[in-house]
Amino acid sequence: MRHRLLLLVIVTFVVISATQLAATLAGSQTADRSPVVARVTLGGPEDAGRFVRLGLDLLEMRQGNDLFILTSPAQVEELRADGWAIRIDEPQTALFKQQVSINTYRGGYRTVAEMRDYVNSKAAQYPDLAEVFTYGQSYEKVHSGGAAGWDLFGITLTNRQTPGPKPTFFLMAAIHARELTTSELALRFVDYLLSNYGTDGDVTWLLDEHKVVIVPAANPDGRVIAESGFYQRKNTNTTYGGGCANPPTVSNQYGVDLNRNADFKWGTIDTPTEPRCGQTYPGPTAASEPETTAIQNLVRSLFADQRGPADTDPAPLTATGVFLTLHSYSNLVLWPWGWTSQASPNNTSFTYMGTKFASYNGFTPEQSVGLYPTSGTTDDWAYGELGLAAMTFEVGPESGTCAGFFPPFSCLDGNSGGSFWPRNLPAFIYAARIARAPYQLVLGPSPESVTAAVSGENTFDLRAQLSEQYNGGQAISAAEYYVDTPPWRGGTPVAMSALDGSFNGVTETAAASVGPLAGRHLIYVRGRDALGNWGPVRAVFVNSVTCGVTLPALSAGFDVSGGAGVINLNSPDTCSWSLASNDSWIVVTSAAAGSGNAAVNFEVRENFAQQPRTGSVTVGGQVFTVNQAGTVQGGCAISFTPANQVVSPSGANGAINITAAADCLWTVTSRASWITITSSPSGFGSATVSFQAAPNPLSTTRKGVLMVAGQRFVVKQKGS
Ligand SMILES: [Zn+2]
Predict the structure, then answer these.
(1) Cβ neighbour number for residue 457 with a 10 Å cutoff
(2) Which CATH code is given to the segment(s) 443-543?
(3) Which of 536, 562, 690, 699 is the most buried (most CB within 10 A)?
(4) 667 band by pLDDT with thresholds 50, 70 and 90
């Protein structure tokens, strides 16, 4: 909040509008200026272009032949007088009246200054993965000679330790300043990638093998106005003629629509003859605005030109890079072209791509012109100039709590019609996964989930759910996995099999037994369709389990009459073991095999011989010794030192030195839960028995007893 006030003070010197806006925040929405949403019904396709050229505040939504504008009652009357079939849409109007009065920032939206601080803090926290860059200056910074405005900024995410060149996923937000939620989504994606690197398989390979470049606020000057509660859409350039409303109204404001100003087909739909105070004024010339030239130069620096000059030249299937610009609202996924109703030469891939994104976020996919015709947009430019797979998401519903430009912040994570973040995250991930060759990879099936459960020592049960439902609908014909080295780095494929017996469906579950692989590895999975198209990979980490049984106690002692015994064994859950008695007088009464931790029961027969005896049970390769006294055991002389022991209140180890003839059996048992015998608890002849006393949690002294060959050994421990 402090940053915002400081900024407004600085801006005062140069851009009078900013301070006036802040000062008149509460009083500006007088009755005749209060916004209304009007709905115009178009008579035919040619009407759309004619209406768009009026430069009105078009909402990025459409219902059938109806377009929507933010306007005033007076302007509705004027438009009606001009012959447009227009009326005020009361439910939409109510939404906007409500939202203008919200102090949106209280709910959690970050200011431009906070966004900049955030990316700087992330770059400091993750120096090997993140780097903040500046790529130009905003209009106010240029116009003020640096005294106001902003350095345009973004953040690049990639593992700098892995060599390039790397495919790039470019994500930008809020080129329309008032579309608040888009910046938050971009920043959350930064956080998601950085905080899950090294643990999530997909995030890890995406940052190892890709660059993710994120610009969270492409129009910071305008955003500062929006932070004060005004529906500022454009930049804040005041040099192309005066007389625009100040503070801005919903239909009248200074500035250039940066999403009509890009240098591709500029001026063909949205023309410079549009009213300059209107919402889609494209500027006097192509790329007239510093924000536009800066973002174009940035994108050109990241991607080569991969498409021929003619409108009908397709980008090759091998073209690399995905460009995604976030807008709001009306839950749409849009792809080029916007300037013509002709399909682009890459329309098949675009349609699959858009439909696939929509399958994740639930939006409606369509060619951009289907919303209404536009020219000079950043996505048409990115595709038209460079051949990039360029997409627009219009985030947020058309009605309800989460509609509009300033929805409650809680709509990012929930609310009816909300959950913008969880519904768009998988779409962002898919965009990054196909960035290597989007037009090609989108033709193939995608593993939608990959799991690798430990199935044994260093082995894994790999499962992948593959779908081509939104990628052409061909049957899946094959699946394969790679260990650590992905296909594009020359990794070795290993075929997977169809869980249902054959690959023939649009969705399939592929399976493989992977291993043995000791240690930690990244397993990549991909699928191929019946036309031979391989889809993008997904990856999962595996951590091997080394099997092996350990026995907390390695022996037990019995007197001449024998009896029941227990062998406690520890084993990883996924590891199997078997056991067998090595002597006829030791009878195992539990199952002879199992997996995981277990307690094995056995019985020792009576020893009718004079001599003591030793036998064993082999458990998972470990030998458990069973000692039993003979009928002459009573003649044994067994002694030990010390007679007792005092141990520290904080816990301690102790030892008992036993002296006995070589054929004499002794046993040691603990009668105190806080004393554990840590060496063999029975044996023949002289030996040292170790024990461990736990820390005393009591304030009082306690005593515990070990029975050594039938005699008491007292352990005394003072209170703590
Ligand atoms: Zn927009």
Answers:
(1) 17
(2) 2.60.40.10
(3) 536
(4) confident
At residue 98, the pLDDT reads: 54
* 286 SS3 class: coil
Averaging pLDDT over each range in 3-17, 298-312, 615-629, which range is the top one? 298-312
Q: Are 706 and 681 in contact (CB under 8 A)?
A: no
For 390-433, the DSSP string reads EEEEE-S-SSSTT-SSS--GGGGT-TTTT-HHHHHHHHHHHHHH
Q: Could you tell me the distance, in angstroms and rounded to a whole number, from the CA of residue 548 to the centre of ligand 1? A: 60
> From the CA of 450, how far away is ligand 1's center (Å)?
36
In the chain, which segments carry CATH 2.60.40.10? 443-543, 555-633, 636-717
> What are the residues facing 71 on neighbouring strands?
36
Beta-carbon neighbour count of residue 127 at 10 Å?
A: 9
Count of residues making up the chain? 720
Superfamily of 105-439 according to CATH: Zn peptidases (3.40.630.10)
Query: 377 C-alpha to center of ligand 1: Å?
Result: 10
CA 345 / ligand 1 centre spacing (Å): 25
Task: Please give the Cα distance from 119 to 114 (Å, whole number).
Answer: 9
Q: How far is the CA of 442 from the centre of ligand 1 (A)?
A: 26
Give the distance (Å) from ligand 1 centre to CA of residue 374.
Answer: 12
Looking at residue 633, what DSSP letter applies?
G
- Work out the average pLDDT over 36-58: 83
Kindly give the distance from the C-alpha atom of residue 88 to the centroid of ligand 1, in angstroms, as a whole number.
22
What type of residue sits at position 708? V
The CATH topology of domain 555-633 is Immunoglobulin-like (2.60.40)
Q: Using the mean position of ligand 1's atoms as its centre, give its distance from the Cα of residue 227 in Å.
A: 16
* Ligand 1: centre distance to CA 264 (Å): 18
Say how many Å lie between the CA of residue 629 and the centre of ligand 1.
89
Angle at 165 between CA 481 and CA 191, to 5 degrees: 75
Q: What is the 3-state secondary structure (H, E, C) of 579-608?
A: EEECCCCEEECCCCEEECCEEEEEEECCCC
Compute, in angstroms, the gap from residue 173 CA to the centroid of ligand 1: 9
Ligand 1 mean position to 408 CA, how many Å? 18
Distance 527 CA to ligand 1 centre (A): 36
pLDDT in tens, 95-115: 766 555 444 454 789 999 999
Do the Cβ atoms of 172 and 215 come closer than 8 Å?
A: yes
**Distance (Å) from CA 60 to ligand 1 centroid:** 7
Distance 216 CA to ligand 1 centre (A): 14
Distance 175 CA to ligand 1 centre (A): 7
| CATH 3.40.630.10 residue window(s) in the chain | 105-439
As a whole number of angstroms, the distance between CA 374 and CA 52 comes to: 8
Q: What CATH number is given for 636-717 in this structure? A: 2.60.40.10
CB atoms < 10 A from the CB of 191, how many? 11
Q: How far is the CA of 327 from the centre of ligand 1 (A)?
A: 4
Q: Which residues contact 26 (CB under 8 A, 6 or more apart)?
A: none
686-690 average pLDDT score: 94
Q: How far is the CA of 519 from the centre of ligand 1 (A)?
A: 48
Q: Where are the beta strands (DSSP E) in 17-150?
A: 36-41, 57-63, 66-71, 85-88, 130-137
Q: Are 330 and 60 in contact (CB under 8 A)?
A: yes
Ligand 1 midpoint to CA 393 (Å): 9
CA of 117 to the centre of ligand 1 (A): 24
